[in-house]
What we know:
Strand order of the largest sheet: 4-5-11-10-7-8
Mean pLDDT: 83
Radius of gyration: 19 Å
Largest sheet: 6 strands, mixed
Number of strands: 11
Strand content: 25-35%
Distance between the termini: 45 Å
Structural class: alpha+beta
Number of domains: 1
Low-confidence stretches: 1-35
Oligomer: single chain
Helix content: 10-25%
Shape: globular
Number of helices: 4
Amino acid sequence: xxxxxxxxxxxxxxxxxxxxxTLQLQALPVNNHLSSVKxxxxxxxxxxxxxxxxxxxxxxxxDAANKTVxxxxxxxxxxxxxxKQVVVPITQVWGLTNAEHPYFFFFVPYKASSIANIEFVLxxxxxxxxxxxxxxxxxxxxxxxxxxxxxxPNKSSLQVGKMYHWFFKVxxxxxxxxxxxxxxxxxxxxxxxxxxxxxxxxxxxTPQQKATLYAANGIWYDAIVSLAQLRHTNPQNGILLxxxxxxxxxxxxxxxxxxxxxNCCQPRFNNTN
Length: 273
């Protein structure tokens, strides 16, 4: 496998919730060594845009071993100055994609017997109003692990520059005599146009190199799905597992880096919105 260098200065102008916002990614040298799949975050959205929660605040018990639902997505810590005396911390949960119909990844710490239902919702935000583009209930995984949810190709494509708010909700029922409890995550995805330099590099890259390129250019959702698909195809490949761990550690998700990647979960019903 030949080493190669990628030097790219990417300037993307787009609008986040009607706020003009120009994203600049610095020129980055990237080689194709398999342990170099490290996410280089782009500048996050300004102000209060993209606030969310990557995971539950506390364990819901059951068989979760003190773990909670966790979205596999970067976070950014920002502050909002409400006044001279009041500074409010904000966690932004946000990532970029080039895909029209991206995949989303979540860690579910529960067995199927403890899950009442799993719901995924994707909403479009326009003029401070939300419209649901997709809502589905998923068949729960039989055992704890990392699952994926696909925004299906029969739905309208994500538009470049728009912010989309997703919600992942797991309703847990340890004791059927008790009400269900909600464990959830929510965050944002934004589609960007892929620049021509990166497009040409991807055409010549191996599947492993593509993950490296996406990660180094701050395109999170494409980086993680590239690695996940490789791991599904080669589940015993130790090098791919090392790449996966490196990627998750680079965004503070080392605690779940060893969790199994499960080929799951299909919608429970056909009549999804």
